[in-house]
């Protein structure tokens, strides 16, 4: 619960804080200055002509909040319960790999900032730090694990066992990246983080992955990651197998079609993340926010529906929540915070998101996360 009287968010920011970019574009500019073109371009860009990337962002402005007044918004409860865990607010950290290309402290800095602001942290398979290192750096905080399937599926099962042992609360299987999208900026910059040896934290510590190597060299590790991480044969039978290898809840990330959402429910999946991977996979696909309502309708409350792609500020998150998302994941904004200022930079991004989200919910006349689904959002 937060009390509006003790929590005059805007004035608190004007009085207390040192100057720091708040707006996404200013933050991106600061990151551009801090990074080499290869890493900066890898994070910023998306697939093809970046149609979907641009649409993800611009489509939010097609939706307008119609607020209610005189509802006594002096206290706000943003708690949400998802798959048996109660989280203080419906904002998560999206899984983003290879964080060391943005800052040397990488995922440790992000996970610590997330723990400080109570954002559940979804760790990517292709992290620079391992499952166990992140767990040790952030004891007691909520963590989920994003799994990239491996062509040698015993590696995927091994990672699933490790996250369960390390106390993670759920596994998010990403299904839209069975091969990498057509990313022209990376071709232009000749930049592949995996080829340069980033993102090995979970592979180089995995007993099944390491045992399968023919030789124990850096080249062999890179080659084997590349052979395993692209897995175009992935299909629903693999999901059933994963189900038999973990007792953790499984969510599928990358759902855009209502029929895939229905199939996920039929196959016993515990939740989905509506996402187009920030426009980084197939260019020309529907903006994530435009896909949300149809999927929420298809799911009809039977499993949680998380959301990402294009969320740039608190009011975007509020629109997604009002359209039926159970929680919203923040992507590129925190990566720019990391590039601009390490853990501190991420903290400022999360703090701003949280504060704007809370102010926006209250100003729309809503007091808790049950009411937010009734918030009126219209196209126009
Ligand atoms: C640099 C970068 C790396 C990413 N790595 C992963 C990843 O390892 N696994 C995954 O499921 N999604 C990954 N994503 C996608 C994010 O989880 C998320 O879907 C996307 O960033 C949302 O779009 P937005 O950042 O424009 O809001 C990555 C995104 C970026 C920008
Ligand atoms: O770049 C990405 O979007 C992504 O998901 C990824 C895939 C492999 C390695 C690093 C990141």
Strand content is 5-15%
**Whole-number mean pLDDT:** 96
Q: What's the structural domain tally?
A: 1
CATH class identity:
Alpha Beta
Shape call:
globular
* CATH superfamily placement: Aldolase class I
Write down the secondary-structure element order: EHHHHEEEEEHEHEHEHHHHEHEHEHEHE
Number of helices: 15
CATH architecture heading: Alpha-Beta Barrel
User: What ligands can be seen in this structure?
Assistant: flavin mononucleotide, benzoyl-formic acid
Low-confidence stretches: none
Instruction: Write out the strand line-up for the largest beta sheet, numbering strands in chain order.
Output: 6-13-12-11-10-9-8-7
Structural class: alpha/beta
CATH topology: TIM Barrel
Helix content: 40-55%
Task: Tell me what you see in this structure.
Belongs to the FMN-dependent alpha-hydroxy acid dehydrogenase family. This is L-lactate oxidase. It comes from Psychrobacillus faecigallinarum. The protein is α/β, with parallel strands linked by helices and 380 residues long. The protein has a single domain (3-372), classed as Alpha-Beta Barrel (TIM Barrel), CATH 3.20.20.70. It has 15 helices and 14 strands. It has helices at 9-16, 24-34, 37-44, 51-58, 106-116, 131-137, 153-165, 184-189, 207-211, 218-229, 236-243, 258-266, 288-299, 314-322, 332-363, and strands spanning 2-3, 63-66, 75-76, 80-82, 85-87, 91-93, 121-123, 143-147, 171-174, 250-255, 271-274, 305-307, 327-330, 376-379. It has an 8-stranded parallel beta sheet. Strands 1-3 form a two-stranded antiparallel ribbon. Helix 14 packs across helix 15. It starts with a strand and ends with a strand. The model has no long low-confidence stretch (mean pLDDT 96). The site of flavin mononucleotide has 23 residues, from helix 3 and helix 15.
